[in-house]
Design goal:
By secondary structure, the chain is an alpha+beta fold. About 50% of the residues lie in helices and about 10% in strands. A hairpin with a 3-residue loop joins β5 and β6. α1 runs parallel beside α3, α2 packs antiparallel against α3 and α12 packs antiparallel against α19.
């Protein structure tokens, strides 16, 4: 949905008129996230009322047509006030254990989104922004950029349309918000499951994911839990994505893997209808506001600028990676045949995770359980702190939470402090999975940075949310893929916390979509670098640092099937572009499109009847923008090789990252940021848009 607020590319941002305990001198009782309004769940109603009241005051002020700088300042304050509600509500909806808070947050989000339709169709605001943009000689460079993008956003939202068409656009926006929410809620509500008999077919290292079930002997298809003595014991395995990944890696029985794969990729069926409606609503919206497709609408102001730039880029990458991906596929097939002794046996989709795990273990003496013993969650948090201090001379102090501020006892709060600059911002960490918490890995900007006056700056406040499993906080051991995810999200958080923009409109991750994932992908590299890992990755019982040989094995295992993984990401991006491209034929369903693209761009079969994409939430959050991850992989590979690799932990490296990159948020053109950071050659112009240079990524992957 296009609004006055330029959305965060990762996740979500609040307001200067709310007293926040993060900046208060004494710890006192407060409300959720430090907002006094949120001492109770019904406080969300007051937050909405306050945001609308203040925004209406600012709309009246803007209607008087003050100077250009005053218009932009007032528009940014509207954005700031509205974001208080939207972003606090989204964080609450995903993480709060109290059902009343979740419901009130959901209602608040819907109310404020309805108010946004009023703002986005307000011609007075549009004419004021046009006036401010024309008064460019009165504006700073950042204010000029803000005026330009505010005008573009309003125009893309249909401000130029007739009242009837604008009403339809607003209704479609409401429908899109509702459908996006329904899609994600269905994923959580219907994870799917398989019942396996006898229970001996399920290995012991999967029992923590299983629920014992029983059936009478001699009734192989009955899986109801029964009383009585003559019962056969089995297991019910849930097939939500994380559990499915474990089953496919660890179950030696191919039939168990097949059952889990098919079931896990066939839920939630309701989302096929939701997705059809969402695609149709987005397409109709795009056509009404003057675009041929939703993809064209979504890409218009990104670096790529159009599908005509993105699709050739994706097809070129697919062609580049195919030979190596086919080599890797053949190695897996040969390994399976060697293990089974069946030389005519084929390779099935449910075989990939199982056999690649065995091959990695065999080739590199690599075992995930051994590796996880070096990554207890508290040590990984220390690693985040060490990285911030090494690069940016910033100390992350654990800060007491005020009464009422937290939403769960597991939540930690860090304050970021620079010895010369003082406090830079605040970071909540909610990292452990729990019942009723969405199984997400995301960064939420609760409050964006903005300049309030010559002497006062609104400090950013961010929440980093993960869903790592473990019985209690100190016992959580992370697989290395989890460590990589943690550093990915920390990259987003640092982007928000270290940006110093005049306007919250551009704070942190509020950048064009195909630039937003670059910091997060860059910070993933630190989770693979021994020079850094040895500082915090220590064995949970002995305290010994991680051995260098183990890290080398880890890297070797990572590179074994890198082409297949890249091919998978290219496929996801092509699916996203195709579904949001020119209107689909009414005779073709999304499953057949996904099947055809899978056959064309990967080595793997498509399993009839499955619809994996029905729980691919990026189709909702990144509609027509998933290619951004591939842009980010290319940008991050170049930045790492040219700037970070030689001395990744130095203050000089950190200074370049901060002053030339992170501090600008969206206030500076991303192409200029990239060129200033590593010099020319990092990007190329093609068909009127920008694509990344892929040389560094290709060298890294030995393509």
């Amino acid at each position: 949905m296009q609004t006055l607020i330029r959305r965060s590319a990762a996740y979500f941002i609040p307001a200067r008129h709310c007293v926040h305990t993060s900046t208060a001198p004494l710890i006192r009782e407060t409300g959720l996230y430090g907002f006094d309004n949120l001492k109770t769940a019904k406080g969300f109603r007051r937050m909405v009322d306050d945001a609308i009241e203040r925004s209406n005051e600012l709309v009246s002020y803007i209607a008087g047509m003050p100077s250009g700088p005053e218009i932009i300042d007032a528009m940014d304050e509207i954005s700031n006030a509205v974001c208080t509600v939207i972003d606090s509500a989204e964080l609450c909806r995903h993480t709060h254990p109290d059902r009343e808070f979740v419901e009130e947050a959901s209602n608040a989000s819907l109310r404020i989104n309805e108010y946004l339709h009023y703002l986005n169709s307000n011609c007075t605001l549009y004419h004021a922004v046009v006036k401010a943009e024309k008064d460019h000689h009165l504006l700073t460079e950042e204010a000029q950029r803000a005026a330009h993008y505010l005008r573009i956003d309003l125009e893309k939202g249909g401000i130029h349309l007739s009242p009837e068409k604008l009403d339809r656009v607003n209704q479609l926006n409401t429908d899109i918000v509702r459908l996006c929410r329904e899609f994600n809620e269905n994923i959580v509500a219907d994870p799917g499951h398989v019942d396996i008999f006898p229970g001996s077919r399920v290995p012991k290292n999967l029992h923590h994911l299983a629920k014992p079930i029983y059936r009478p002997s001699g009734q192989p298809r009955l899986s109801t839990v029964l009383d009585g003595n003559k019962r056969e014991r089995g297991f019910r395995l849930r097939t939500e994505p994380d559990a499915l990944c474990s089953i496919l890696q660890l179950a030696s029985d191919p039939e168990v893997r097949k059952l889990a794969y098919v079931r896990g990729n066939s839920v939630p069926r309701a989302n096929l209808v939701v997705l059809d409606k969402l695609i149709a609503a987005r397409h109709e919206f795009a056509e009404i506001v003057g675009y041929k497709s939703y993809a064209e609408f979504a890409l218009k102001d990104n670096m790529a600028s159009s599908p005509e730039v993105v699709l050739p880029f994706l097809l070129d990458m697919s062609k580049m990676v195919r030979p190596k991906a086919e080599e890797e596929f053949k190695k897996i097939l040969d390994f399976k045949r060697e293990i089974s002794g069946q030389l005519d046996e084929g390779l099935e989709p449910w075989d990939e995770a199982y056999f690649t795990r065995l091959m990695k273990s065999s080739a590199h003496n690599f075992h995930n359980s051994v590796l996880a013993s070096y990554f207890p969650l508290p040590q990984c948090i220390e690693g985040l702190k060490m990285l911030a201090e090494s690069l940016f001379h910033v100390k992350c102090h654990e800060t007491p939470l005020a009464p009422g501020e937290s939403w769960h006892p597991d939540v930690l709060k860090l304050s970021l402090h620079h010895p010369d600059e003082g406090d830079l911002g605040y970071l909540y960490l909610d990292l452990k999975s729990r019942e009723h918490k969405h199984p997400i890995f995301a960064h939420f900007a609760i409050k964006g940075g903005r300049r309030i006056s010559e002497t006062e700056y609104q400090l950013p406040i961010v929440a980093l949310v993960c869903s790592f499993s473990g019985s209690n906080f100190t016992s959580v051991m992370l697989h290395h893929s989890d460590v990589e995810t943690l550093f990915h999200e920390f990259g987003h958080a640092l982007h928000s916390l270290l940006s110093r923009t005049d306007y919250q409109h551009f704070s942190g991750t509020r950048v064009v979509l195909d630039f937003a994932e670059t910091p997060s992908n860059l910070f993933e590299y630190y989770s693979w670098d021994y020079r850094f890992l040895r500082k915090f990755a220590k064995h949970y019982s002995t305290g010994d640092p991680i051995p260098e040989e183990l890290v080398k094995s880890m890297l070797g295992a990572k590179n074994m099937f890198a082409a297949i993984e890249l091919q998978r990401q290219i496929l996801y991006a092509l699916i996203d572009q195709t579904l949001h491209g020119a209107q689909l034929s009414s005779t073709r369903d999304t499953s057949s499109i996904v099947a055809d693209l899978r056959r064309e761009h990967t080595c793997w079969k498509y399993v009839e009847g499955t619809h994996w994409h029905a729980r691919f939430s990026h189709l909702v959050t990144y509609g027509a923008g998933y290619y951004s991850y591939l842009y980010a992989k290319c940008f991050a590979a170049t930045i790492w090789q040219k700037l970070c690799q030689q001395d990744p932990l130095s203050l000089a490296t950190g200074s370049s990252l901060r002053t030339k990159f992170l501090q600008h948020g969206g206030a500076k053109d991303p192409a200029d940021i990239l060129n200033d950071l590593v010099g020319s050659g990092m990007i190329r112009n093609q068909n009127g848009g920008i694509i990344p240079d892929i040389t560094s990524l290709a060298e890294e992957m030995k393509l």
